[in-house]
Design brief:
- It is a single chain.
- The protein is an all-beta fold.
- Helices cover about 0% and strands about 60% of the residues.
- It has one helix and 18 strands.
- A hairpin with a 2-residue loop joins β11 and β12.
- The chain is rod-shaped and about 105 Å long.
- About 25% of the residues are buried.
Length: about 270
């Protein structure tokens, strides 16, 4: 009987980033922060098998291409601004959050799905499976030519536009498969089974699970345009094509679980 194992989680702990204030030495600066959240699923099907000569051993070969790696993530952002300048003898100091439409986090969806060979243990020819999401189109976070609606400074006029493009590579590698009271750490490994006093019977029940590592490599790149005047005096006019939100690569140990394997055994006279 085949054993179906799976792991699923609805978070991505630690996947947050902060650009810091940019550009440097400008009287008006922006700052972007972001955090990813979503779900990852890893599933595989194994074919536990019992063999014996002097004693019984168990193996757990994978069913070809019966593994699945699926990742679907969205992002939430916060945009901050600050203005420190002097216009016509008036000192201006402003800092605050720049609002973005509530629907934006739902628009930025990073998704990737790929099958793999479940027998991919460290000594096999394909030890890691990776799935890369197609880059999203440029999602508009904020765009307005009436900047006075979002920056409360007397006499300000101009506009702001911020877009983002996201991508995500998710990788999975199996490190060991536990079956019965032992663990397989190689693609050709086996586990020895001691015969119970009353014999094995028609079938052998054995708990089975798989341990592995999921690696997340997210990327978010912004394009930013900001221009405005105060009391008719131009303060800033800049356009940045590639502002990267630094996000960490995250390694997470996972365990795939399922029902205990029931391995049928031949009946001997």
């Amino acid at each position: 009987m085949q054993a179906q194992l799976s792991y699923s989680a609805q978070d991505l702990p630690g996947a947050s980033g902060d650009t810091g204030w940019f550009p440097s030495d400008s009287p008006a600066q922006l700052r972007l922060t972001g955090q990813l959240a979503g779900q990852t699923t890893v599933a595989m099907t194994l074919n536990p098998t019992a063999c014996w000569d002097d004693g019984m051993t168990l193996t757990a070969p994978g069913v070809a291409q019966a593994g699945l790696l699926d990742a679907e993530y969205g992002a939430e952002f916060q945009l901050l601004g600050q203005v420190h300048t002097s216009v016509l003898g008036y000192q201006i100091d402003w800092e605050g959050a720049i609002p973005m439409p509530a629907y934006v986090p739902n628009d930025l969806l990073l998704a990737c799905t790929t099958p793999f060979d479940p027998a991919a243990l460290p000594d096999s020819s394909v030890p890691v499976v990776s799935a890369t999401s197609a880059p999203t189109s440029n999602i508009i976070l904020v765009s307005t030519d009436v900047i006075s609606d979002i920056i409360d400074i007397t006499g300000i006029s101009g506009g702001i536009r911020v877009t983002v493009q996201g991508g995500l590579t998710t990788s999975y590698s199996t490190t060991s498969i536990s079956i019965g009271n032992g663990a397989l750490t190689s693609a050709t490994g086996s586990v020895t089974v001691a015969q119970p006093g009353d014999g094995f019977g028609d079938s052998l029940g054995a708990p089975i699970s798989a341990s592995g590592v999921v690696v997340y490599q997210p990327s978010l790149i912004f394009s930013v345009r900001l221009y405005f005047s105060i009391l008719g005096i131009s303060v800033v006019n800049w356009d940045l094509a590639s502002v990267t939100l630094p996000l960490p690569e995250i390694d997470r140990e996972v365990t795939l679980t399922g029902s205990a394997a029931a391995i049928p055994l031949p009946r001997l006279d």
